[in-house]
Structure formats: structure tokens, C-alpha cells
Amino acid sequence: MSRHRTDYLWVAPALLVMLLVIGYPFVYTIDLSFYDTPPSSANWYFNGVNNYTQILSDPFFWAVTLNTAFWSVGSTVLAFLIGLGAALVIQREFVGRSLVRGLLMIPYVISYVAAAYVWRWLYHSDYGLISGVLYDAYIIDAPINFLDSTSNVMPSLIIANVWKEFPFAMIMLLAGLQTVPQQLLNAARVDGANAWNRFWHVTVPTLRGVIIITSILLFVGNLNSFGLVWIMTGGGPANASQIWITEVYTLAFQSLQYGRASAYSVILFIVMLALGYFYVRALTSGSRNREARG
Amino acid sequence: MTTVAGVRPRGRVAARGWPRPRIKTLDVIATLWLILLLAFALIPMLWMLSTSLKGQFAALAQPPEWIPSHPTLDQYQTLLSPTGTVGPVFLRYFLNSMIVSLTTTALGVLIAIPAAYAFSRFQFPGRDVLFFAVLVRNMFPVVVFLIPLFILMRALHLVNTHWSLILTYMTFGLPLSIWLLKGFYDNIPEELERAARIDGASRFKAFWLIIMPLSSPGIIATAIYAFIGAWNEYVYALTFLNSESLLTLPVGLQHFFTEFATNWPGLMAAAFIMSVPVVVMFMLLQKQFVQALTEGAVKA
Predict the structure, then answer these.
(1) Which residues of B touch A10 (CB under 8 A)?
(2) Model ipTM value
(3) Strands, E, within chain B: which ranges?
(4) Using CB atoms within 10 A as the burial measure, which of A62, A256, A278, B102 is most buried?
(5) Nearest CA in chain A to B149
(6) Phi, psi for residue A144 in degrees, rounded to 5
(7) Per the CATH hierarchy, to which homologous superfamily does domain A52-293 belong?
(8) What is the pTM of this model?
(9) Is A18 buried (19+), middle (13-18) or exposed (0-12) by CB count in 10 A?
(10) Domains of chain B: which residue ranges?
């Protein structure tokens, strides 16, 4: 027993700071979400679930939710597919392979702030590279409004975001691909399976775990992605790119409604937790069925 | 060894009489796709560099100049000269970022090492709890912690100091750091310590003399990861600091932008300088970085 007590000394520092900086705010946020915190006064008072009912009955919340879904699903799917495509081609042996892998990962390691400014500049409606090149090639006859148009802003942001995070999917899946047993692929080939069948029936089932983890990490990363949207559009124009995370920030630090922002946060957390839980369960039970059948 | 067009096992298969043209098609597609990917990943970076080497008027030229016809280092000189109006401010931001990131990294690794080792070796309900902590930390909207942490930092008199950022970054990085390091410790055979313990070494001594040296690649990888995270962080720096002299680069860049709204070459030069440390560090230690990032996921 005493030996176990000294075991805990090894993790004590980590546990202590995590309790202080993660545990305490976690509880505090939940507590604060039941309070009315008028920005003009220091008198915060308990008002039950009012913050929650107000948020959920506000049509604007649902508009923001739709934006968030588009942003997260769009970014995750595209980043995953491009990352997978990149992993499949990087996995082949060729000269300069590790250099190419390194170059492809540059967008991932630079900051979202630098990325946001570069893409703002690329998208610039008067002097931007993209409009300029397309105009020059007679593909368009007027500059495209990437970020100042309510219909273009989301796809434009998603492309910038996919640029930033596809390398993450790439290296995760690349690492997974390297665990696929070569004998199994060879056996499938001898049995006459073509490249697609080998990929679908041998590679994908082996990668299941990595696929789950990569897509969850991408998805929650996108739900929490603040800097890119905030710097590129600030949620505009006309709230067309307002997503949950930027809306929480606006509520808390521009409208100074801490209580309401906290309730908003708790709702997001519940949604994320539920999504994560059902997603993991669906995928793991799928694989169990497959194993039982196969 | 071989080129994109000549993947080794395929050569053997072709010799066995598989239809050659089909294999070639796959190679061509792979090569084209790779070129496309490289263009997608690198053009924005190259455009950043190209713009930063232009004068303000050249940057607005239409059609855009891919390669500046009159390249100039003016923007870099302005940003990096310790005299003038912009240089000292920018250098201050850079220094602040360095201080915060290096302190965060050192403290974070120091705290993560024993915890990771304990999770790897001792009888904790380790792995599941830890992985859950990593996920939950990622799932709880980062912005959400802002309000309570801001209030906490105020109570601790840390608002508007670098310590508020260091404490936050370090802690937020911990679950992942521990998870990454644990992966490295798991790969070191326990027999090594057992032998040392039988020879009379204490648990700590066995750890310090046997495990620490063996796990240094893992520690380096975790450190890079922590450094890059701290170097790039934006939201907390935006909220916790308000003195101009304390700002870190990501937030400072925004000030730079609002003050010099039309100076795109200057902004691109600043973004480029900000990207250099992380890109260089990553390129030098690519292998460890990739290993650290993927270690847990592949085994889970």
C-alpha cells in the first residue's frame, strides 16, 4: 500500500496543474452557466436553466449551428480524403520521399495566424493571387469575392482550413498504412484482387482504428478551430461564417455575457461528447460484426 | 533507389507477366497527384515569401508577379532593425514568443516525464483514462476555458503576465505530452530496469540512469510538439495579455496588420519570420515529430 502511495508522487505534479487549470474551470463553467451575469453590474444571480432555454429557442443559434455543421463536416471530409490520397502516394517508395513528406507538412506546423493572413492575401478581391490568375487566364471576367460574399465565405474558409490540416490526416494514415501486413497484400494479389479490392478489403479494415482516431481528432479540432475564422472573417459577412466557437467568444468577450457564454459552452461540450461517443461506438461495433462474420 | 515510376514490388509483378500499361497508368496518376498536392501545400507558402520580397506597389501589380522583378529585403530590414518604429516592437514580440514557448516546453516536459513513466510502468488504470483525458481536453471548446481561466488568473494576479500563458499552455499540452512520452516508454523493455533493480538500484535510479538516456528521442519529439503548440497559440494570448510590451507574435501580428493595413509585403514578411523557427525545427527533427504524433494512434 505504501509503495503505491509513492507511485502517485510521479503523477502528482501533472495531476495538480491539470486539476487547477482544467478541472477547476470545467466545474466553474458549468456553475456559471446557471447564472445571469449582466455585463453592467457585478451582481450575478442564479437563474436556473434560463440561459439554456434562451439559447436553444433563439433561431440565430440554429443558423450558427448549421454553419458549424457545414464547416466541421466539410473540413473533416475534405482533409481526410486529401490526407488519405497523400498518404497512399507518399507510402510508395521514391527518391526524395521524406523531403516531399516534410514539404507537405509545412502548412500543418505553421501557426493558424500566419495561415489566416496568407489566405486572406490569396483571396484578396482586388490584388489576390487567385482572382488575378483566373482573370489572367480568362476563366473569370471579374474578381471573385471570396470572403465578402455570404455564399462564398464558408467554402473559401474550408479550403484554407483543409490546406492547414490535411497533412495531419496524411501522417496519421501514413503511419497506419505502414502497419498493414505486406504478406496479406501479397496474398490478396496472388488471389487475383486488383488494387482497389486490396485497398478496400485489406488496407481499410486494418486501418479502422487509425481512421476512427484521425477523423475524431479532425472533427473536434474543427469544432474548436477559432483563429482561422476569427482572423479571416470575424464571423462575417452578416454572420455567414459565424460558428459556435466564434459565437461563444463574441458572447463572452464582446457582449461580456459570461453566464450565457458558459451555457453555450456546456451545450457544445455535450454535443461533442455525444457525437464522439456514438461515433466510436458505431465504428467499433461495426468492426466487431465484421470479425464475427468473417 | 527508385523513382516514382518504378515501385519495387510492382517491377517483379510486371516481370511475371502482368499487363504493363495498367501499372504505368497508376504510376502516372500517382506522380500527377503528388505534383498537385505539392502545389496546393507550397504555393501559399511561396506566395508569402514572394510577396515579402516585393515593394508595396509591386505587391499590388495585376496580373500578379510570381517572382518579384525587383526583389528587396526592405521589409525584413524594417522588421528586424533594432532602431526605427517597427523593428523594436516586432523584435519584442519575437522575444516574448521565445520566452513563453521555451519556458512552457521546459516545464511541460519536466512534469510530463515522471507522469508518463508512471502511466507506462505502474498499476494505474492508465491508458484508457489518459486517452480519454486527451480526447476530452480536445473536445471541450478551448474558448470555453477562457472565462473561468481569466477569472482564475485574475485571482492569482497573473493576468497580463507571461506566466498566465505559460501555465495555460503547459497544462493544456500535458495530456498529449504524457500520451506521447508513454508511447516511447512502452517501447523500452522493462527487463532493462529489472536488471538494474536486481543489481540494487532504486526505482528512481533505474529510471534516471537507464530509461532517461534511452527515451531522449521521445523527449525531444515531445518538446518540439510542445514548443510548436505554444509558439502558434492565439486565443489565450489574445485574451490574457493587454500590455503592448508583453504580446506574443500571433497577437502582435494582428496589431501590425491593423496599424499598417495596406502593407501586405510587411505582413507577409512578419508571417514568414514567425514561421521560420517552427518549420526549421520540424524539418530537422521530422522523423521524431512524426513518430511522436502517430505513436499513440497506431497502437490504440
Answers:
(1) 114-115, 117-118, 122
(2) 0.86
(3) none
(4) B102
(5) A25
(6) -85, 135
(7) MetI-like (1.10.3720.10)
(8) 0.86
(9) buried
(10) 8-52, 79-299
